[in-house]
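Progress report, Aim 2. The chain analyzed during this reporting quarter is listed below.
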Amino acid sequence: MCFDFPPERKAPKRYVQYSPKSRLIMKSKFIFFIIISFSLVSCGFEKLGDWDISELYAQKIEGTNKVLYKYDAWGGRDSHVSGFLILDSIKEFEIDLKNTLPFYNLSSIPNKSKIEGVKHECFNSCSEEYYKTEPIFSPMKIENSKSEGLNIETKIYQYRGLSEKDKGLRGDFIFEKFVETKDSIYFFNLQEEKYVDNKHLNELKLKKGEVYLSENEAGEITKIVINQTTLNPLNNEIIEALTYFLMPNNKIKTSDFSDRGIFKEVKLTK
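Predicted structure tokens for the chain:
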């Protein structure tokens, strides 16, 4: 069934006449608004690249003169950015969104041959589609790029597949001593502050790559955060993603650790 509606009746235009004095006042207010707006922008409210860095860690890339940084920063309008960035060791660090590496976590120890990381994309598994899809644990695609002359390999996983293997924080420990090898760190005489598996561990072996050392002003370690992303070496299927927090029970210095596969805190000057 169709309906014929009468044509819309437009209200007659009304014109308002302003006196010369009123027009002068309005013009003055407009100029004042422009000046104030320009002043706010000039003071840094909207300056691109004006970031407040909350965390900064650096790892020397073995066999090169490059440094891999992991940063976390806040900017105008509560914008938040974080990521990995490669710079020459002689360059001073500054946020560079364009050259930030395209992954979220490392999957191996960075080296001169290749830096490998992982990220996720939806692939029809985000939001309400999450439980309508089957999890896929192999990478959906692998992208290769370059940064500062180094090869970057990013394995991209289905969101549901990666999230189901991400077990989050698995433990918060206090340790007495450690032993570092080329690719791993062993922590001994553990005390559990929090451990989700509810069983005592005497020691813990964690692989290097994404190890973060926080320190005090004396260079003594206050906290260690280790992210573990483990892939099947045959088909790159994601096995698990874990995070551990550790704190020393005695004085251990950052310099007691090597540079290979370890991020060390960069002190920020305010």
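Helices lie at 20-42, 159-165. The first strand starts at residue 52 and ends at 60. These observations will guide the mutagenesis work planned for the next reporting period.
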